[in-house]
Fold:
Amino acid sequence: MRALLILVALAILVAIGLVYTGVISLNQTREAQAPAFDLKVKKVEVGTTTSNVTVPTVTTTTKQVETPTVHLSDGNSQ
Structure:
C-alpha cells in the first residue's frame, strides 16, 4: 500500500514538472457542471547522432608470476 502511494505521489510530481516546464499545456475550455479541458502536448523526437567521444580502453597482458600452491597429504607417507 505504501509503495502504491509513493508511485502515485511520484506520478503527480512528474506531471507537475511537465506542466511547469511547458511540455504539457492544460487549458480549461468550458466552465460548467462538467468542465472541459484542452490538453496540448509538445512533440518529442528521439533519435541518435554520431559524435566523437573519448573512451578509455582496457587491455590485458599475460605475464608469468609466482603463485602460491597448497599440497595436502593424508599423513601416510610412502
Remarks:
- The helical segments are 2-21.
- The mean pLDDT is 85.
